[in-house]
Amino acid sequence: MNKLQSTLVIVLILIGAIVGAKIYFAPKKVEINLQSARAKGNPQARVKIVEFIDFQCPACAYGINFLKTFFEQHPNDLYLQVRYFPLTNMHHHAMLSALYSECASRQGKFWELDDLMIPQQSQWAQLINPDPVFQSMAGQVGMDMTQLNACLASDDARKVINDEKSLGQSMGISSTPTYFINGKMVVGAKSMQDELKNYFPN
Amino acid sequence: MLFLLRIIIGSVFIVSGLGKLLAPYQNFLYVIQAYQLLPSWAEVLVAQIFPWLELIVGVFVALGLWTSWSLRGAGILFGIFVVVVGQALIRGLPLENCGCFGEWIHLKPQTVIVMDSLSLLLTLVLLRNLSSVQKFSLDSRFDQT
Fold first, then answer.
1. What is the pLDDT of residues A140-157, one digit of tens each?
2. I need a labelling partner for A1 at 20 to 30 A (CA). Which of A118, A134, A180, B12 fits?
């Protein structure tokens, strides 16, 4: 075999190996739970979004704010479900903010707390201990504080968050925000906006 | 010893390319978007093609195949990294991670620009000493026959 032939063989082996590995290690597909307490919108909507979120991630805050406005413009055409993906190696309060959100969802207050937590992200993200701020937010949205503190202390809420993160990792997620729009993976608010333009051109 | 350096530089590209290729391309697209340098269509194109370039250049450099050309390719890639990361640092873009190695290795842009500049210099050194670099290479086997 001459040099050119060897080069061609090496390139073909590389392509074959990568394509084979991608097929073999293909990420899991997203499934939507229509009973989730962390969902809003019309369950029959033509556009269903599952978002994996880290509450301390600035791009997630931008994305959530964009989707909030988008929901107001298209109230019947969207369904959004949120799942946890705290980037604990990057954001010190990612787990604590997710824990408060999970405990709020158990009291049916997920979106109310989210509406307070996200706009104030840049403030609490800088605190050494944002716990008093989250406690105050929970009080403002009318959460039962005894139930909340029991939930925060339990391993169960943490397990739900870690399980969702593991699920996300098995789906190939590594960054936030990651969205699945009608099953198609898009990462970042910019790609999410571009993808939504395919469904809502105007 | 220069042939060892050639293998190390090739391995860097192999790890970098594999890390991106084995993950969904959307993850690397998100990294590219953070640099705010290209139009949307070009970002998608680069996200899909660039990891293949890294892998192929890396394998060729490591194996010592078309060494002169593959080292030039490696030099160009390092040069692109220096320019892209450098402009992000000058513009003060809020990058937490350079995204250079997919999800396998996380490096701050300040760290990676030093590493890339150094790697670019080492690649130029290799290019000036091709005969030593081609020790234990496929090129040397083909040239013998």
1. 999 999 999 999 999 999
2. B12
Six-digit token pair at B135?
């020790």
Contact B15, B100 (CB under 8 A): no
CA–CA gap between residue B116 and residue A115 (Å, rounded): 42
| Range B65-92 average pLDDT | 95
Give the structural domain span for A46. Answer: 39-199
- HEC letters along chain A: CCHHHHHHHHHHHHHHHHHHHHHHCCCCCCCCCCCCCCEEECCCCCEEEEEEECCCCHHHHHHHHHHHHHHHHCCCCEEEEEEECCCCCCCCCHHHHHHHHHHHHHCCCHHHHHHHHCCCHHHHCCCCCCHHHHHHHHHHCCCCHHHHHHHHHCHHHHHHHHHHHHHHHHCCCCCCCEEEECCEEEECHHHHHHHHHHHCCC
Give the global pTM.
0.86
More confidently predicted of B47 and B142: B47
Q: Measured between CB atoms, does A45 come within 8 Å of chain B?
A: no
Domain count, chain A: 1
In chain B, domain spans: 2-133
- What six digits make up the tokens of B91? 């513009």
Note whether residue A150 is domain-resident: yes
- At A181 the pLDDT is 95
Model ipTM?
0.84
- CATH number of the domain within which A167 lies: 3.40.30.10
> Is A83 within a domain?
yes
Cβ contact B142:A3 at 8 Å? yes
Q: Which of A13, A174, A198 to mutate to test the interface with B (most CBs of B within 10 A)?
A: A174
> Is residue A19 included in any domain, yes or no?
no
Residues in chain B within 8 Å Cβ distance of A172 = 23-24, 27
Sign of CA dihedral B32, B33, B36, B41: positive
Whether residue A201 is preceded by a cis peptide bond, meaning omega within 30 degrees of 0, is: no
Instruction: Give A-chain residues touching B56 at CB under 8 angstroms.
Output: 11, 14
Gap from B118 CA to chain A (nearest CA, Å): 27
